[in-house]
User: Which sequence fits this backbone?
């Protein structure tokens, strides 16, 4: 049985959002409810929290964990990409803090039947949302070789993507996580350093199955728009692709003008909507990584909504 860890960067999240009584908060990636419990405890006695997750298993765990907070916690099975809609349904015009702790939960990683890991054998699933019609098996066994190679290269930043895609296509049908990991290990000549050769391909498949990058791009403008002035947005990313999206969004939305550098007069009219609280991301201390090795790649970026909001934010 896997050990339960404190959520990644727990204290930094509570410090960043500084929850207060009477405040309204969103945890867009509820998971087992660890961060949400911290936000609710810190905003006692009457802070409110909207928690979202697409995974019914996670939602059930969170429900049990947050039961003692009663109606202060409103938990909804929905994608965070529907944030604006969820807030409108609650008639919450604005909130004081929003958290996204991206990726799969430890619970999902540690459940072989979910297919996220090759440490134990499982089906090639990798869906956060079990009603999503696309599974990893579909991509692995049906995509044309060139498309599979592109996917592995783009979402896994895997240099050996062509070789891996060719080996997968030759080995079709590939039916489980360990069979896939073995095909990849053979194609790449075994272990390179500390990282298993299948790690990047598994990341690529998971990102594609769950459309993770599109989801982040869709929700960030909604999150900024939903914040009260002074409200905070905290995002924990676990790989460079998602961290880059957050970083570039923060950089862009914290600038007053986006015209080319040599242009003498601003013609774009873009106004900063946030201030970057963390110019450099916060990363877990060595002690946290020792207790929870999965925390090692976590990067937390925090932004604060400015008093005057740009009306140019394009909400997808
Ligand atoms: C790293 S876990 C969050 C852990 C959580 N912070 C805790 O304290 O337990 C990420 C969660 O986000 C969920 N998730 C991923 N994509 C989502 C989306 N588009 N909308 C809502 N939840 C999503 C996953 O199902 C997973 O449970």
Assistant:
């Amino acid at each position: 049985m896997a050990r339960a860890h404190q959520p990644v960067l727990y204290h930094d999240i509570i410090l960043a959002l500084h929850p207060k009584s009477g405040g309204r908060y969103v945890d867009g990636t509820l998971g087992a409810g660890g961060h949400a419990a911290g936000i609710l405890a810190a905003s006692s006695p009457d802070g409110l929290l909207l928690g979202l997750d697409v995974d019914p298993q996670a939602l059930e765990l969170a429900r049990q964990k947050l039961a003692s907070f009663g109606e202060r916690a409103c938990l909804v099975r929905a994608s965070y990409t529907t944030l604006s809609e969820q807030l409108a349904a609650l008639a919450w015009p604005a909130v004081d803090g929003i958290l996204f702790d991206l990726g799969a939960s430890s619970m999902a990683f540690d459940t072989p039947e979910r297919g996220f890991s090759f440490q134990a054998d499982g089906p090639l699933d990798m869906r956060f949302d079990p009603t999503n019609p696309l599974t990893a098996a579909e991509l692995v066994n049906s995509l044309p070789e060139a498309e599979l190679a592109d996917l592995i290269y783009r979402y896994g930043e895997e240099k050996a993507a062509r070789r891996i895609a060719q080996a997968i296509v030759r080995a079709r049908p590939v039916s489980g996580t360990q069979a896939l990991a073995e095909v990849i290990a053979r194609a790449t000549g075994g272990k390179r350093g500390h990282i298993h050769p299948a790690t990047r391909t598994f990341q690529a498949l998971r990102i594609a199955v769950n459309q993770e990058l599109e989801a982040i791009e869709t929700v960030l403008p909604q999150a900024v728009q939903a914040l009260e002035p002074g409200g905070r947005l905290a995002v924990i990313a676990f790989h460079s692709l998602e961290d880059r999206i957050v970083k570039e969004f923060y950089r862009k939305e914290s600038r007053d003008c986006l015209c080319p550098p040599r242009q003498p007069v601003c013609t774009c009219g873009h106004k900063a909507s946030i201030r970057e609280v963390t110019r450099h991301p916060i990363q877990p201390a060595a002690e946290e990584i020792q207790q929870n090795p999965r925390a090692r790649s976590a990067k937390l970026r925090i932004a604060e909504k400015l008093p005057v909001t740009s009306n140019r934010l394009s909400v997808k």
Summary: The longest strand covers residues 227-237.
